[in-house]
Amino acid sequence: QVQLVESGGGLVQAGGSLRLSCAAVGRTVSDYAMGWFRQAPGREREFVGAISRSGRITGLAVSVKGRFTISRDNAKNTVYLQMNSLNPEDTAVYYCAASTAYSGGPNFEAIYWGQGTQVTVSS
């Protein structure tokens, strides 16, 4: 069992940046492929990005490609989502997730989820 704890959310103006962090408690993050999802009010949870256990494979949703970057620091047991050029459509609760593997694209089968962190982008 692993507990995922997100941090770094908050309120930012359009065009601004935030960096989300996801720390693993109970297991080392290097044991898992890691992903980020988001859910806006009234909408389904959607894939944002993911990274393989080694970090060699990453994938991002089309809506965030070129603005968001996903990375991991296994030594710090943490995964990051750097979000630049934020716009109000990025407002959502962002969730960190863990999986046994990730080979690219939007397919990420999460087995563990974090509690989520709110990101609000004002216009």
**Total strand segments:** 11
Order of helices and strands: EEEEEEEEEEE
Which structural class fits the helix and strand makeup? mainly beta
Outline type: globular
- From the alpha-carbon coordinates, what is the Rg to the nearest angstrom? 13 Å
In whole angstroms, how far apart are the ends? 40 Å
Helix content: under 10%
Low-confidence segments, ≥5 residues, pLDDT <50?
A: none
Main β sheet profile? 7 strands, mixed
Q: Supply the number of helical segments.
A: 0
* Percent of residues in β-strands: over 45%
Can you describe what's shown?
The protein is an all-beta fold and 123 residues long. The protein is globular, with a radius of gyration of 13 Å. It is 0% helix and 50% strand. A hairpin with a 6-residue loop joins strand 4 and strand 5. The strands form two sheets. Strands 2, 4, 5, 6, 9, 10 and 11 form a seven-stranded mixed β-sheet that branches. It has a four-stranded antiparallel β-sheet with strand order 1-3-8-7, with no helix packed on it.
